[in-house]
Every structure is written in C-alpha cells, then in structure tokens.
Fold these 4 entries.
Entry 1:
Amino acid sequence: MRKAEVIRQTSETKIQLALTIDGTGQQTIKTKIGFLDHMLELFVRHGRFDLALTCDGDVEVDAHHTTEDIAIALGRAFSESLGERRGIIRYGSMLLPMDEALVMTSVDISGRGMAVVELDIPSEKIGQQFDTELVEEFFIAFARELGATIHLHQIAGKNSHHIVEACFKGFGRALGEAIAVNQQAPDEIPSTKGTIK
C-alpha cells in the first residue's frame, strides 16, 4: 500500500499525520480550525484517501501558519507515498458544482510545483478563524511540496463557503484521478524524460 507518515515541528506548529492514498476516505482531523477541518475532511472523502492528522498551531495569532504548514506536511506525505511516481496516471481534472458555485480543478504531477488559483471569494473570512486568502496559500504550499501543477478556476459562485468547498472537493477528486495506477502501464514513469521527481 502507498502510505506515509510525516512529523513536522516548528516554533509555530506541531503536525503529525499518517496518510494512506489507496484508502476509503476515513479520517481523523484535528487542526483547531473548524472550517479547515471540514475542508480537509471533504478533500479526503472525495479523494478516497485515509488520513489521521493533528496540528497544534499558533491559532491565537491567526490561521495562516497552521494552514500553510498542514499543506506542506500533506504535500510531503503524498510525495513520499508516490515514490518515483511509477505507474500513476499523472493527470486529473474535475469540474465540480456546489450549489451555485462551479470550480474547475486540474492537477499534473509533473515534478514542478506551481499553483494557479483564480477565485473570486466575496468574504474575507469564513467562520471566526479562516481567512479566505489562505485557500491560495494552501494550494501553493501543497503544489510546491508535492511537485505538482495545480489549477483552480472559479466559473461561477457567490457564496464563499460553497466556492471554497468546491475547491477542496474538486481537488480531492482530481488528485485521486492523477495518482490512480494506470492498469495498462503499472510500472512506467509517465514522462518522456524517464523521471518526474
């Protein structure tokens, strides 16, 4: 099974996580930020990953360090789980509706970390702790650590919660598709260069 455990500790956060990417969507997530917990639960469920994650972060300051550091640790766990990327599909995409919101998500596990996030989120904050500008920070950190190109483009949407929810659900689906094993070429590295990492 493809899985990894990551411990990341800084002066701002202490993170411990265990990830199984060939899972069923089971999760235990405790970040001290309710909205972030909810988004990660959706990501895991729709990607069918199993995740146990705890984070003790400086949420008394704000949610920035916790959100970014979790993305770093999670991206690292996916990277370790995938090893040399042998046999993966590599690409995944999802056009996901969430009520009035519609977001297109695409992923290329290319070895090059980049996130293009084009969202028009009306409110500056969701819940009491989560600044909506942290959505982009999460995906930038995740992309950099995994070595993936991630595109998130909002096509429609007026409700901030719905827009962000569509991002995390769509990302789970797109990433799940990208890391799936190509049954026609289960031992190939999907690149003409012969390497992805």
Note: The chain has one domain: 3-179.
Entry 2:
Amino acid sequence: MKRIAKKILVLLLTAVLIIPQAACSANGGGQKEGPSGSGQAAAADDEKEIRGPVTGQDFHFDTVCQITIYSMDHMTQAAADDALEQAFALCGTYEDMLSKTLEGTDIYRINHAGGVPVECDPETVEIIRMGLQYAELSDGKFDITIGKAVDLWDFHADAVPAVPDPALLSEAVSHVDYKTVSIEGSQVTLTDPEAEIDLGGIAKGYVADRVCEKLEECGVTGAIVSLGGNVDCLGSKPDGKKEKDFVVGIEAPYSDKSEVVGSTPASDRTVVTSGVYERFFTYEGREYHHILDPETGYPADSDVLGVSIAAARGKSADCDALATICLILGAEKGMELVESMDGFEALFITRENKILTTEGFDFTKR
C-alpha cells in the first residue's frame, strides 16, 4: 500500500497548512505544555473553552497526516487534544490492518498465504469489495492486484532513479488480475498465489471518511482531515457567529505546492486529487510517475497531468479510486465516466495546461 499511496495535490486555502497552530504534536495528540511548576494552572487552562483552530499531525500510510479542528460542541484544549489523539490512533489501527508491507496485517497475510483463504476484519473485506467494484467499473484500469508491479518501482525522494527490468515487470503484470480475488464471508483468497493486493489507490480515502466519523463522535462540528492529501471537510468553518465554506485550492502541476490554479468550496465535502507530478523521477531524459497502468506495469500514459474528484463527505474512498481511473483513462473518457455517475464532479488539468471541469464542479480560477 505504501509505495502506490497517492498524496492529494491541493493546498488548503482555509489555512490548514499555514495557520498559526493552537496545538501541534508529532504524535497526533496536540498536547500543550503549561508554565513550569504550574501543572494545576495548565490543567485548568485545558478545560477553558477556546476558539480553534487546533492542529495535530502524525505519520501514517507513508505520508504526513494532518487534522485541523475548527469547532466543537464544547471546545476546550483537552477536548480537542483528545479528539486528535483518537483520530490518529484510528489511523494507526487501519494501517495495522491494511498495509501491504507491515507483517501481520490482513493484506500482508492474504499476499503471503499461498492461495489459502485468510480470515479478515469485516472492514478489510469491505474495502477490497469496493476496490473490485471499481475494477469492474473501469474494466481493469483500476486493479488492486497490482502489488507486484508496484514493488518493482521506487518513487521515494531519496531513491536512486531506476526503471525495472522489462522481463521482471512483464512477469509481475502477468499476475495482475482482480478476478483472482475471491471473497466468501470474511475470508479472502487469491486464486493466483503469485498475485499481490495493494490498496494504495483507495484505502486512505476510506480512512479519511472513518476519521471524520470519529471526530463527530468526539463532538467536532468543523474540521479538515488531510491524510497525505485525501481531503475531507467536516462541517464548515466558523466565521464569528456565522459559518462559511472551507476552500480547497487545486495545486498547479510541478509547483511543489507553491501555486494553485484555483479553488473549490468544500463544506461537508471531500476532494481527492491524483497527479503525475506528485511522485516521479527522471531517468535518461524521460519522466516516470507513480500511477501505473495495470496492463503494462509502466506509468500511465494519457493527456492528463492531474484529476480532482469532488463529492459529498463520506465518499472519499470512491473519489480516491475515481481520480486514479480518470487519470489513466485521459480527459475525454474520464469526463464521460464521471458525468455518468450521480454525486461526483471532476476537474482535469491536461498536458496542454487546459482546465476542464464537469458541469457541477464549483471552481474559481485564480
């Protein structure tokens, strides 16, 4: 899951990334230190009602995950810290369930079972079923059994650029076939023992949705969740006694997150972007990016640099898969697919730097 994991290609103009943080912790807890020798005063301060934002971050799914809480039913420092702690703990739980590389996870056990059925958590089964549905929808352009091909590439920033041996890649691709995944109840079997499941194209979206649900359970009414970029906006942003939309900026390709081409409002909404410019390297004068075509094992070759899919909150997993599919399909076929589906909108940035949107995508060009 880790190597294929996509980072969203957006900047949060509502200041998720640039706000003065009321609290921030590397372990996600957002704990605040009190004055030296004044533990009781610090504890009392933690119980005072405060105004957001309160931000925390942690590292999961091979990427930095950030959550910013803007409002709660009764927002105190302690309450906000507790909500962040529970949310990041949930990320850890899913990573321990869905990671392809961590030993003992459901996906690791399936991939190393030699074709024997593996008993899995019901949520693992749910995500795999979603992945298979999008594989069917895309006629295999989205395929969760791409794991072996993914293993042959390394798009990490510190990696030495290298293209896999064509023979090895051809062998890996021969085991990419979502129809080899069999589900019976809570048991998952790979009928091709050499196949490998990788949920990097859908898992973070699923987790983002569940994190929003956890925050709601904690009394959060306004927040932005960015799991390596899969952005879920819970509620809206407080503005005095009123509320206003969160705003998500769509990053300009190859800008290192320093420029945006425009923005879209996103209250109780999710926006997921897939782009060829997020993880790539140049080798012998040619660029190779991390979004692989399941038919070839090589980076997808289409007329699209980036795709942003927007939908109601709770649909982040769907948007995750659709963004990948549309980038592989290209602008024309991708547009047709999204327009055929209720509740989803899309923005495409083509290699000619044209911006194309479905009719309902609310976009303000910069």
Note: Confidence is low (pLDDT under 50) at residues 1-36.
Entry 3:
Amino acid sequence: MHVASDLRIYLSWCTERDFDPLTVSRGQVELYVRWLPEIRRFRPSTVSRRLSVVANFYRTCVIDGILEHSPAEHVRRPYVPAESPTLGLSRLQFEAC
C-alpha cells in the first residue's frame, strides 16, 4: 500500500512538471528528492524510503529492458540516524515492565 502511494506521488510529481518518468535524468530525480523535504516537509527517513521506491521502480525497468540505465542509481540518499526518534520504551524499559 505504501509503495503504491509513494510511486503514485512520484509519477504525479513528474506529470505536474511535464517530465516523462521513462526519460528523466538523474538531475530531475534529485530535484524530486529535494522537493520532498523542502516543500512537502518530509523527514529524512521518509525521503529515503520514497527514494528507495523510485530507485526500485527504475531498477525493475532496467531488468525488464525498458531502460538502459537507472536515473536514480547514483542519487544520494539523506542521512538517516540508526537511532529512531520515535518515542516509546527502550528494550530494557519494556523488559522492566
């Protein structure tokens, strides 16, 4: 469900800018990645997940012979800390309960 939604948002973004998703350049994919936090205000973890969906879409296109190479292949992902900012009990706190 989330993958379909993420891909739909990317394809809509391309359509709004008159970009053909099958002929975009790496620079255009990078514009999308910058748009996510700057305009949509998404956190790095969400941006990374959405870029992962786009990269997998293009990887599948390469595997299926639709594209020669993926425009998302060398797009840098935002840094996502290993520690989750989500509030909740740590493992030790949970075991103590």
Note: The first helix runs from residue 2 to 16.
Entry 4:
Amino acid sequence: MEETVKLKIETERTKTELAILYEISNAMRTTLKLDEILYIILTGVTAHAGLGFNRAVLFLVNEKDNLVEGKMGIGPEDGVEANRIWKQIEQEKMDLEDLISAYKVAKNILETGFNRQLRTLRFPLSDKNQNLLALVVLEGMPLHLNRETLQNYRQSPLISMLEAEELVLVPLKAKDKVNGIIVADNFINKKPISKDDLRMLIMLANQAGLAIENSQLYEKTVMRAHSDSLTELWNHGYFQYLLYSELEKAKAINAGLSLILLDIDDFKVYNDKLGHQAGDSILKDLALLLKNQSRKMDQVCRYGGEEFTIILPQADKNEAFMIAERLRQDIVKSHFVHEEILPQNRLTVSIGISSYPADGTTPSELIHSCDKALYQAKQKGKNTTCSAS
C-alpha cells in the first residue's frame, strides 16, 4: 500500500514537472527575439508557475572575445520587494503567460540597478581555476555551491553581487556546445536547493540552449538582411521599421522619444577631390564613431548618402540636444583621413533633432521635423545642431 502511495505521488510530481517544462518550451517557441527568449527562460526559472527559484541570472558566451557576459537577471532586490511582487502575482492570479506578456508590453521593467550592474560583468574563459563561469563553460557540467564551498569564491564579482548562501550554475547547450549559463538561488526564502530542483533546471537548460542558438542564428540573418553593406549600420528600410516600433513603445509607456538626423558637411568636395573610395572610407569611420559613442539602447542607421540617423528611446528634446552636441564635438575632435582638404580643414557635421510628441506623433512627422531642423543647421553655417521648433 505504501509503495502504491509513493508511486502515485511520484507520478503526479512527474506530470507536474512535464507540464511546467512543456509550458516554458511552448513560450520559447513564440518568438525568435533574443531578449524575449532570455526573459522567457528566466521567468520559467523564477515564476511560481515554473521552477520557483527566488532569482536567476543569465550569461552568454561571446566566442569572438573569449568571454562570458552578463545579459539579464530576474528577481527582487530584497525581501520587501519580493513580498510585494509575490502578493501582486497571487492577487492578480498571474500565470507564466501573463508574466511574459507583461514584458512584451513594457520592456523597461528590467531596467533595474541589479540588471545594469549585471550587464557590466564580463569574465574571461581563459582561467577556469579562478573563474566559476569559465569552469562551468569549459567543463560543460552544472555546479551546486553551498555556504561552505562558496567561501572559496568570495573574491568573485558575481558572488559578491549575489551575496547568496547557496546557488546553482547550469550550462546551456546546443549540439553539445555551451552557449550560456543560468545562475539561480533562493536568497529570500532560503529554501534549500534539492536534487529535484537541479534536475528540473538542467532539463530546462537543455531546451533553453537550443532556443538561444536559434535566436542568435535568426538575429544574424536579420542583421545581414537589414544592414547597410558599407557601414554595417541598419539600412534605410529597417530604420523606418525601427522608428515605427520605438514610437509605438513610447506611446504605450508614455515615454519620450527623439530622432537625430546628421549630415556630413561639404562631403561632395571630399568625394570630388579624392574619389568615392576615399569617401566610403570616411563613411565607415564615421559610422563606427557614431555606434561606439551612442547609448546602448539607441539605434544608429544609415539614412542614405552621407546622412545618418539615430533613434533615441526615452530621450526628451533637452537630452537629445546634449547627446547630439556631444557627438558633433566628438566628430570635430576626431581625425579623419585627408580631412584637411575640406573647407574648414576638418570633417564636421550638421545635425537636426525632433522629439515625440512635441514635433510629431507619426514617423513621417518626426522625420519631416528633423529634416527641417537639419536644413536650419546648414543655413546657420554648418557644424551646428538645431532642434525642431
């Protein structure tokens, strides 16, 4: 009789586990966007309807630079926030699908101090003896650390940031190749991490690794299809899509949005004197500068010819003006090959700015306002930034 009861309990638990994994797996199949995939994975790890860990963070392997990089984390900052979140979930009867939908509507929910700190973490894969994450990647095996074994890694920035007494690190794999790591703990309720918890996390990680690989392949394809071949920035067609998409987000969360239109001054002089190959070299150098000097959330695009545009989410007109002026001055200070043949003996740009909602509520209105502001900058003598009035 006792054996029958045990078998029944075991069967019910297995059914529950399979149902959880099935739901998370289905959610991962709804998108190919990497940020959404990562959020679904971490929600599955932390949600009450999922694996139920208090907190989870995700790192991805950067093969090009031989690094592991912090990408995203989900979990409360402290016990007060944890109680507030868990109470809200319970009151609103939020399931896994509800939690994922909340992210798709307002992606800024991850802009916490914890997430910003996490995204600064980068660990080399060269030394697995000193680096926990490198050890998991290179060995391809999960790691379960308790209060005692964690003492060996107290100098690790990751362990210092998490301040956990027990945690697990599980590799994400695709075709036996590790492409990421999930780190999970129960730092609020201090619930011990059981073998069953670890087994479930490993099963989820196996699916997650494949979902991440598919997403990365998709994003590479999108990049090739929508990139300008010369500068490797987004091309004009994709700029139009991005502007529409970012504008819809701004409207949904009642946030600002600004647009920069930038034009190289007297570029025809440079092309006529040195030829289009030299002009192409300038365009590539300027594109790299704009990308490196812009905020991570900004979208830098080639508008056409010698014109570039930058979409600035969550930036009002004053912020956009400061960003544009900083870029203009950076360009003046930078050296470009043979710039001495230009009228001012250096390469300069003119910049126009427009902002939502003051200068337009549609993409075409914002572009039109931005274009007028750029024309005004040219009329003022070039090497100037003007805002739409």
Note: The chain has two domains: 2-225, 236-387.
